[in-house]
């Protein structure tokens, strides 16, 4: 007991897939299952502004993760979140729909009169009906899966000043690399190396 | 020094769910490669030694996997040797192909101090000069010469200043990251990919093109926004023309071919973020895939007059052929490099931030003792005690393992119905 804290060497960061967020973290939270590692804090409906999340939510790269209760009106001290676009289904590796992802943008100011910011929230929720069908066996008959109550939020600030790499983990070629790479095809234009 | 630990025990990953090895370039150089060069032990053996000449890129993922989490990139140390005793070039050939350097080396900074260089290489199948380009990309990081000598001089030759000079560049340990170039969408789990896929969100998430390319564009005296619009026009018009191709063999359709190919290959999606560049990007995009389309050959030389006569339709086509334009700025690579460098410099500040939470290099991964309460180094909170007692007990009833290791193993299999936790939840409720 009590041996569950870990420290990872440099280079490891919290960088979950959508599926992991849903299946590993949110599903367990909603089912009141022990979640290990229990790294994502529950901020309930505290009215934090997005820039206040640092130190309160789990940080992975430039993104912050926390659990929250589901609410139609997400309002913070200085503004509000407004949903945009269409919700996206989250599909697991084996093709099952496990949850949904909603996009929200943070506005500073009074509701409906706010100023749009670069803060984005992705709000993950479990599938409305699908979540209990496949995974929960009969043995869990008594487990009431409160899938509607909890959401998992990922918040980040869209960065305008960066180029296409938000956190430069280098697994994408930069625009220039692409240019250079393509140049290789143009009859081997040789660059002095 | 923590005792030796490995990332996977009995085939079970000890990397907790949600965590990935995504080192910054600074971490790769400053932490990992510096330790390697100085013969220091590296925790967890995260990065392995690899003989690049004996390993094909598609075998790297098995050889260099970290735990059992899915990976998009792989890391290893490689010892560079000279290809020829007399020359300075490096032999990067494997049985099936070879790695070929592309572009220019990028300088890696740490706190505005130059610490090393990054070389980008592409894997070609076959033998030079007839290799076939693949999607495998390698970033090869080396420490700056003075870095290497200064850090190793402490342990070895104190007079070992930079006597090796240029040769040192091509010899010694490097740390490499290998990944597959994404031609279509970004990986599905990438947070940005979804934004690109969905049209309605594409606008919202499109990064403003303030990056290096923008600078280049400005350098060439062209507004990026205008470029962007032009290219969008081209796409729309083009899609339209394509629909009519059957009845109407449009004479000038071929002018749009690069775009067409780009679209057909889904490449354009990837480049939605980029300004349509009057540089080789667009022209060469199709070349990228030309093996598949075979259209490279029939891509005709344009003459400007022809293009301009079609101006209405083909505002964008003009931009598709930088090769045949003699844009004076394009050939000035030195100026381009300066721009790039100035841009790349800013990125390094970013990486320092990540390091902050890892300021203690020694690590106690899964250490049996609970951390001191004031420990700030990414401690993962303990299990909720109420649950965990049930949890451990029931698990140990069925399996007689050492619990510490196995905590990872069954959290890993969270989605399977044979998950021991299902059982646990049953008993606890």
Question: What features would you highlight for this structure?
Answer:
heterodimer; A: 193 residues; alpha+beta; Metal Binding Protein, Guanine Nucleotide Exchange Factor, Chain A; 3 helices; globular; disordered N terminus; B: 429 residues; two-stranded antiparallel sheet; 9 strands
Describe this structure in words.
- The complex is a heterodimer of chains A (193) and B (429).
- Chain A has helices spanning 18-30, 130-133, 175-185, and strands at residues 12-14, 58-60, 63-69, 79-91, 97-108, 115-126, 150-157.
- Chain A is of the alpha+beta class and 193 residues long.
- Residues 1-5, 129-143 and 162-168 of chain A have low confidence and may be disordered.
- Chain B has helices at 25-37, 57-63, 145-153, 166-169, 193-197, 199-205, 212-219, 224-244, 257-264, 267-271, 280-288, 290-293, 304-309, 333-355, 385-398, 403-412, 420-428, and strands at residues 8-9, 12-13, 19-21, 48-50, 73-80, 97-110, 113-125, 132-143, 172-180.
- Classes of the chains: A alpha+beta (193), B alpha+beta (429).
- At the A-B interface, β1, α1, β4, β5 and α3 of A face β3, α1, β6, β8 and α6 of B.
Topology order of chain B in helix (H) and strand (E) letters: EEEHEHEEEEHHEHHHHHHHHHHHHH
- Gross morphology of chain A is globular
Strand order of the largest sheet of chain A: 2-3-7-6-5-4
Q: Characterize the largest beta sheet of chain B: strand count, sense, and whether it forms a barrel.
A: 6 strands, mixed
Low-pLDDT stretches of chain B are 1-5, 147-168, 185-211, 221-333, 345-429
Q: Considering the protein shown, what is the CATH homologous superfamily of the domain at 18-130 and 142-160 in chain A?
A: NAC domain
Helix content of chain A: 10-25%
Query: What is the CATH topology classification name of the domain at 18-130 and 142-160 in chain A?
Result: Metal Binding Protein, Guanine Nucleotide Exchange Factor, Chain A
The run of helices and strands of chain A is EHEEEEEHEH
Question: What is the overall number of helices of chain A?
Answer: 3
Label the overall shape of chain B: globular
How much of the sequence of chain A is in beta strands?
25-35%
Distance between the first and last residues' Cα of chain B: 42 Å
**Mean pLDDT metric of chain B:** 57
Strand order of the largest sheet of chain B: 4-5-9-8-7-6
Give the C-alpha Rg of chain A. Answer: 20 Å
Organism (chain B): Protea cynaroides
Protein name (chain B): NAC domain-containing protein
Pfam family, one (chain B): NAM
Biased composition (Polar residues) (chain B): 384-396
């Amino acid at each position: 007991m009590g041996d569950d804290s870990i420290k990872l060497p440099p280079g490891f960061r919290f960088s979950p897939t959508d599926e992991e967020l849903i299946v590993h973290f949110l599903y367990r939270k909603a089912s009141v299952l022990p979640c290990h590692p229990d790294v994502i804090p529950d901020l309930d409906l505290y009215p934090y502004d997005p820039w206040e999340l640092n130190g309160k939510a789990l940080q992975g790269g430039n993104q912050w993760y926390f659990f929250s209760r589901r609410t139609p009106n997400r309002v913070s001290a200085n503004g509000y979140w407004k949903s945009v676009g269409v919700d996206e289904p989250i599909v697991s590796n084996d093709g099952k729909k496990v949850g949904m992802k909603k996009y929200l943008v943070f506005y500073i100011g009074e509701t409906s009169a706010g100023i749009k910011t670069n803060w984005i929230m992705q709000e993950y929720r479990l599938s409305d009906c699908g979540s209990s069908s496949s995974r929960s066996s009969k043995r869990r008959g008594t487990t009431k899966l409160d899938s509607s109550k909890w959401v998992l939020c990922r918040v980040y600030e869209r960065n305008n000043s960066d180029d296409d790499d938000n956190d430069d983990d280098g697994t994408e070629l930069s625009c220039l690399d692409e240019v250079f790479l393509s140049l290789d095809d143009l009859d081997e234009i040789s660059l002095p190396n | 020094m923590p005792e030796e630990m490995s990332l996977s025990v009995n085939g079970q990953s000890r990397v907790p769910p949600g965590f990935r090895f995504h080192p910054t370039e600074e971490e790769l150089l400053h932490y990992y490669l510096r330790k390697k060069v100085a013969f220091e032990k590296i925790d967890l053996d995260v990065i392995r030694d690899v003989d690049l000449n004996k390993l094909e890129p598609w075998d790297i993922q098995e050889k260099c996997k970290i735990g059992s989490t899915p990976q998009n990139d792989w890391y290893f140390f490689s010892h560079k040797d000279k290809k020829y005793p007399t020359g300075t070039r490096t032999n990067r050939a494997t049985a099936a192909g070879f790695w070929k350097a592309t572009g220019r080396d990028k300088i890696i900074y740490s706190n505005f101090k130059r610490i090393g260089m990054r070389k980008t290489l592409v894997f070609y199948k076959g033998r030079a000069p007839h290799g076939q380009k693949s999607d495998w990309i390698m970033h090869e990081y080396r420490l700056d010469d003075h870095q290497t000598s200064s850090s190793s001089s402490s342990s070895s030759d104190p007079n070992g200043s930079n006597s090796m000079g240029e040769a040192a560049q091509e010899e010694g340990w490097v740390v490499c990251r290998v990944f597959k170039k994404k031609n279509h969408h970004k990986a599905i789990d990438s947070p940005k990919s979804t934004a690109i896929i969905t049209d309605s969100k594409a606008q919202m998430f499109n990064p403003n093109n303030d990056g290096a390319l923008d600078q280049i564009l400005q350098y060439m005296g062209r507004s990026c926004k205008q470029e962007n619009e032009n290219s969008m026009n081209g796409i729309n018009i083009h899609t339209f023309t394509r629909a009519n191709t059957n009845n109407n063999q449009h004479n000038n359709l071929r002018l749009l071919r690069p775009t067409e190919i780009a679209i057909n290959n889904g490449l354009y999606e990837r480049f939605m973020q980029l300004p349509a560049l009057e540089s080789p990007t667009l022209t060469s995009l199709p070349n990228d895939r030309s093996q598949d389309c075979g259209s490279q050959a029939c891509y005709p030389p344009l003459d400007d007059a022809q293009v301009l006569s079609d101006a209405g339709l083909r505002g964008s086509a003009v931009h598709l052929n930088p090769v045949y334009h003699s844009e004076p700025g394009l050939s000035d690579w030195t100026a381009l490099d300066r721009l790039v460098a100035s841009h790349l410099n800013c990125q390094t500040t970013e990486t320092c931030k990540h390091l902050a939470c890892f300021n203690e290099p020694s690590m106690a991964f899964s250490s049996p003792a609970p951390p001191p309460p004031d420990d700030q180094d990414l401690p993962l909170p303990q299990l909720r005690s109420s649950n965990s007692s049930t949890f451990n007990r029931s698990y140990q009833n069925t399996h007689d393992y050492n619990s510490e290791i196995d905590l990872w193993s069954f959290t890993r299999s969270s989605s399977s119905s044979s998950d021991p936790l299902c059982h646990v939840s049953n008993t606890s409720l």
